[in-house]
């Protein structure tokens, strides 16, 4: 017997025998539902045999037989009714468990999100791709698909999505391109560190999405619910279907605030802030200015996260302010890092360590934030050092800057496009999907082993555009990505350590060392970050002008 638990209310399984019923009862199930018609297989016991054994053990039973491959809307309704009426938890079975899982999925579609349903069934070992449109449509069979069709569909209107659309259109102006994104506002997220440090005003990092969509590109203001790559289709909320010849996936990351117990309830008050949210970055600066003494915590969750240097950037800019205002001697700075190193590329660590000393900050490695009590001003960390048993420690604070845990969005993690870890599965050189030849991905959501930064997306956009254009023309990929990413580490107001690196930590500086040595804190790098990169972002990157981002081509011999 192979029991597949979907949730606490129901488990499903392949065909059972009367001998299995006692174990099902012993496992705590109170009802058995059969979704397989009698007589389907020569070795199949009848429902009556199961029923007799189940009733003898005090279990409730339900016979709801469904012909394989023919689950009707009325069947799903009947399954939902049975789930409400039967004592739980319920054990449902058919030949393989798929019919039972399908019935559950459709019956719950009006209560749970498509991602929740697909995640639960996927974890149980069942692929609901065949009924995903019905799930998105509230469990009902769509009567009108209302398909729209485009040459290229781009999922996500962030830095990666708009940049790749602009770069692609500059190469092939005739292309019919659509961007799918429900957001009204587009944010320059690299600027939020500067907002939290009192350098930028928050409003300078925001513009309306409509003002940034490239000319000639359609904007469909809707969220994606699911993918059907076998049918070249994207399913939107409300079960609208958008078809494509080629698909580019770049929706960004999900900030999983709820993963830290108590965090959501205290964000923006009780001294708890984060530069990872537009509305909270100004609060960071308020706290920094207002803190006269006490303990300041800066947290960093397990990788991957976007802009891995951002948690310590907040620490450095805060420390610089307290240093310059003579308060540092009264403030205890603690950096709580779930990882084991200050920065992943060793060439930049010596310069950063000098600032850790300057601000008298304590580095606490392998400390992962798991809970916050805002009113009590305490934070609890799981401490999991190598080769030692994990423990928990609770630390008091007066101010805490939190970097939230991060994952791929739910609709990505449960999709056929994702790898086992939930990221879009691409070739790290061409950024083309490993399974579906007409799908590409860039930005934070794909699984190439590069740093997740806006600078990486700036480099990736022309590469994907070049390779998609080559594919449209009938050729092979012509551009390769070397893993470039950049992290301007704001070590003090007026100086930056400009980390630029690629796959394997290879240094990839954009400027000669005599002009700008990225391993040292420089004024030139600060000017780049403060004055040059924002207009490059708005006026070049998002308009398909590839400043310092020309694609590197595959050599003729490779």
From TrEMBL:
Keyword tags: FAD, Flavoprotein, Hydrolase, Oxidoreductase, Quinone, Transit peptide
Stretches assigned to the FAD/NAD(P)-binding domain: 150-268
Named cofactor requirement(s): FAD
Enzyme Commission code: 3.-.-.-
UniProt cross-references to Gene3D superfamilies, sorted A to Z: FAD/NAD(P)-binding domain, Protein tyrosine phosphatase superfamily
Cell inner membrane keyword on record: no
Alphabetical list of PANTHER family matching this protein: SULFIDE:QUINONE OXIDOREDUCTASE, SULFIDE:QUINONE OXIDOREDUCTASE, MITOCHONDRIAL
NCBIfam families: TIGR01244 family sulfur transferase
Protein name, as recorded: Beta-lactamase hydrolase-like protein
Organism: Pseudoprimorskyibacter insulae
Classification of source organism: Bacteria, Pseudomonadati, Pseudomonadota, Alphaproteobacteria, Rhodobacterales
């Amino acid at each position: 017997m192979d029991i597949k638990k979907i949730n606490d209310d129901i488990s499903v399984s392949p065909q059972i025998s009367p001998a299995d019923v006692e174990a099902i009862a012993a496992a705590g199930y109170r009802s058995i539902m059969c979704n397989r018609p009698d007589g389907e297989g020569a070795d199949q016991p009848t429902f009556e045999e199961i029923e007799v054994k189940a009733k003898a053990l005090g279990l409730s039973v339900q016979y709801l037989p469904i012909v394989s491959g023919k689950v009707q809307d009325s069947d799903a309704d009947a399954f939902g009714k049975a789930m409400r009426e039967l004592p739980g938890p319920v054990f449902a079975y058919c030949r393989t468990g798929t019919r039972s899982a399908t019935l559950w999925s459709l019956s719950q579609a009006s209560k749970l999100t498509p991602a929740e349903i697909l995640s639960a069934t996927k974890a149980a070992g069942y692929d609901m791709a065949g009924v995903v449109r019905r799930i998105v449509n509230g469990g009902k069979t769509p009567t009108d698909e209302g398909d729209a069709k485009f040459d290229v569909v781009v999922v996500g209107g962030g830095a990666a999505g708009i940049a790749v659309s602009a770069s692609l259109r500059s190469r092939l102006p005739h292309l019919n391109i659509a961007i799918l994104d429900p957001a009204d506002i587009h944010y320059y997220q690299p600027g939020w560190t500067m907002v939290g440090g009192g350098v930028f005003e928050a409003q300078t990092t925001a513009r309306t999405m409509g003002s940034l969509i490239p000319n000639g590109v359609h904007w469909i203001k809707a969220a994606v619910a699911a993918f059907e790559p076998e049918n070249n289709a994207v399913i939107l909320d409300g079960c609208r279907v958008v078809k494509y010849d080629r698909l580019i996936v770049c929706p960004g990351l999900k900030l999983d605030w709820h993963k830290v117990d108590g965090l959501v309830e205290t964000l923006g008050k009780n001294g708890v802030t984060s530069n990872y949210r537009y509305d909270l970055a100004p609060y960071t600066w308020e706290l920094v200015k207002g803190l006269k003494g006490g303990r300041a915590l800066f947290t960093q969750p397990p990788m991957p996260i976007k802009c891995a240097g951002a948690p310590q950037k907040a620490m450095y800019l805060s420390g610089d302010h307290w240093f310059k205002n003579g308060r540092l001697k009264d403030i205890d700075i603690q950096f709580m890092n779930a990882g084991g190193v200050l920065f992943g590329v060793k060439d930049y660590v010596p310069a950063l360590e000098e600032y850790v000393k300057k601000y008298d900050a304590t580095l606490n490695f392998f400390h992962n934030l798991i809970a916050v009590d805002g009113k009590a001003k305490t934070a609890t960390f799981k401490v999991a050092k190598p080769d030692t048993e994990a423990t928990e420690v609770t630390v008091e604070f007066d101010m805490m800057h939190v970097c939230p845990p991060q994952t791929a969005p739910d609709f990505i993690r449960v999709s056929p496009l994702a790898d086992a870890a939930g990221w879009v599965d691409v070739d790290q050189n061409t950024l083309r999907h490993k399974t579906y030849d007409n799908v590409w991905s860039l930005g934070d959501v794909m699984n190439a082993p590069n740093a997740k930064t806006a600078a990486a997306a700036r480099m990736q956009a022309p590469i994907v555009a070049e390779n998609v254009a080559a594919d449209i023309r009938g050729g092979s990929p012509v551009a390769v990505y070397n893993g470039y990413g950049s992290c301007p580490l704001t070590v003090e107001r007026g100086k930056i350590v400009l980390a630029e690196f690629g796959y394997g930590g290879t240094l990839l500086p954009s400027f000669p060392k005599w002009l700008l040595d990225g391993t040292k804190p420089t004024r030139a790098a600060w000017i780049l970050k403060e004055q040059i990169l924002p207009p490059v972002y708005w006026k070049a990157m998002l308009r398909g002008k590839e400043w310092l981002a020309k694609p590197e081509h595959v050599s003729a011999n490779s």
